[in-house]
TrEMBL record:
<dbReference type="InterPro" id="IPR046452">
    <property type="entry name" value="HgmA_N"/>
</dbReference>
<feature type="binding site">
    <location>
        <position position="318"/>
    </location>
    <ligand>
        <name>Fe cation</name>
    </ligand>
</feature>
<dbReference type="InterPro" id="IPR046451">
    <property type="entry name" value="HgmA_C"/>
</dbReference>
<dbReference type="InterPro" id="IPR011051">
    <property type="entry name" value="RmlC_Cupin_sf"/>
</dbReference>
<comment type="similarity">
    <text>Belongs to the homogentisate dioxygenase family.</text>
</comment>
<dbReference type="GO" id="GO:0006570">
    <property type="term" value="P:tyrosine metabolic process"/>
</dbReference>
<dbReference type="Pfam" id="PF20510">
    <property type="entry name" value="HgmA_N"/>
</dbReference>
<dbReference type="InterPro" id="IPR014710">
    <property type="entry name" value="RmlC-like_jellyroll"/>
</dbReference>
<feature type="active site" description="Proton acceptor">
    <location>
        <position position="245"/>
    </location>
</feature>
<keyword id="KW-0223">Dioxygenase</keyword>
<feature type="binding site">
    <location>
        <position position="318"/>
    </location>
    <ligand>
        <name>homogentisate</name>
    </ligand>
</feature>
<protein>
    <submittedName>
        <fullName>Homogentisate 1,2-dioxygenase</fullName>
    </submittedName>
</protein>
<dbReference type="GO" id="GO:0005737">
    <property type="term" value="C:cytoplasm"/>
</dbReference>
<keyword id="KW-0560">Oxidoreductase</keyword>
<keyword id="KW-0479">Metal-binding</keyword>
<dbReference type="InterPro" id="IPR005708">
    <property type="entry name" value="Homogentis_dOase"/>
</dbReference>
<dbReference type="GO" id="GO:0004411">
    <property type="term" value="F:homogentisate 1,2-dioxygenase activity"/>
</dbReference>
């Protein structure tokens, strides 16, 4: 415990994962973090999924999601399983209350917009192309300065950098497509010492709960440790290329339990003189593949727009649309930007997502 100037004590809080055997930080509060005036149950937040139907490739158009609001109100769940939920949000308003996900980590990919994540660890500013990772149990709110479009992953496990790019001490290796220099932590710690009721919406056990604290939730005077929110911009991902086609794992950026997140960025195509840049047809037999298309010319696809989401489920092959393989021959580079999420359990489609679907996508490989 540290003492304040008046001789009273700061309240020490240890936030630790995996029973305090994982990553952890120590925070020093002006008030007891347990000081709560009222609790209530709001209800379940888990989405309702489709019943089992014929296996097919899917295409969702997020441009058809029109409603906005704050980062909780605007969240539209589209897909998920027992390991993660995937949502899209048009964030147009400030969060008036604070929020914490105690079911797992959250990751935001910012497609458009600028603003701030105000967290108990400090403030992180965001802009287009930023991945923001918020650890489980972190109290925060999102303040958009410009209307923000974001792809959101709610993970029921910790989101980390790929294990194969780290040495035994946890440092990112030299051949990793990014390094610690590219990672941004909180920029400024703003400490609030106001008394009075403040609401924190807590997500846990599949439900939303409201906790009314007797003080401001961002009352942290200082902290240290290894568990904290951080940001990484997709433009700092250095692509791995080769003379022949490189498989999707070279694009991996993050991982959680039973899923990975990859970044497709502008890069040189294969430079063997006889190479065909378009990817081969492939069957991701043990995983489902989701792609969120950000910008550029999506070399192997037709009918895809910015903000499109495609789902290619395991069990059936997918690959370039008709004519795209031939059109890629002789091309030197791609300027596409996309985020890919591969899951090792099947992704289920949320019932509401049907409103945003291109029903003809499964048949777009038919040669006319």
């Amino acid at each position: 415990m540290f003492k304040k100037e008046d001789g009273s004590l700061f309240r020490e809080q240890v936030m630790g994962t995996k029973g305090f055997s994982g990553t952890q930080s120590i925070l020093y509060h002006h008030f007891m973090p347990t000081e709560t005036e009222e609790v209530s149950l709001s209800g379940s937040y888990l989405p309702e999924y489709e019943e089992m139907a014929a296996l097919k490739h899917r295409h969702l158009l997020t441009e058809n999601i029109k409603h906005g609001g704050n980062a909780l109100q605007a969240r539209e769940y589209l897909l998920g399983n027992d390991d993660l939920l995937i949502a899209y949000a048009n964030i147009s308003e400030n969060m008036q209350d604070y929020y914490r996900n105690s079911d797992g980590d959250e990751m935001y990919y910012i497609h458009y917009g600028n603003g701030m994540f105000e967290t108990m660890f400090g403030t992180i500013s965001y802009g287009p192309g930023d991945y923001i990772v918020i650890p489980i149990g972190t109290i925060f709110r999102i303040i958009p300065e410009k209307d923000t479009k974001a792809l959101i992953v709610e993970s029921f496990s910790q989101i980390t950098t790929p294990k194969r790019y780290r040495n035994e001490y946890g440092q990112l290796l030299e051949h990793s497509p990014f390094c610690e220099r590219d990672i941004r932590g909180p920029e400024k710690l703003e400490t609030h010492t106001e008394r009075g009721p403040h609401k924190v919406v807590t997500k846990t056990r599949g439900h939303l709960h409201e906790h009314i604290l007797a003080h401001h939730p961002l009352d942290v005077e200082g902290w240290d440790g290894y568990l904290y929110p951080w940001a990484f911009n997709i433009s700092d991902f250095e692509p791995i290329t080769g003379r022949v086609h490189q498989p999707p794992p070279v694009h991996q950026t993050f991982e959680g339990h039973n899923f990975v997140v990859c970044s497709f960025v502008p890069r040189l195509y294969d430079y063997h003189p006889e190479s065909i840049p378009a990817p081969y047809y492939h069957s991701n037999v043990n995983s489902d593949e989701l792609l969120y298309y950000v910008e550029g010319n999506f070399m192997s696809r037709k009918g895809i727009k910015e903000g499109s989401i495609t789902l290619h489920p395991g069990g059936i092959p997918h690959g370039p649309h008709p004519g795209k393989t031939e059109a890629s021959i002789g091309k030197k580079e791609t300027l596409e930007l996309a985020v890919m999420i591969d899951t090792f359990k099947p992704l289920k489609v949320v019932k509401k997502a049907r409103k945003y679907e291109d029903e003809n996508y499964m048949y777009s490989w038919l040669e006319k």
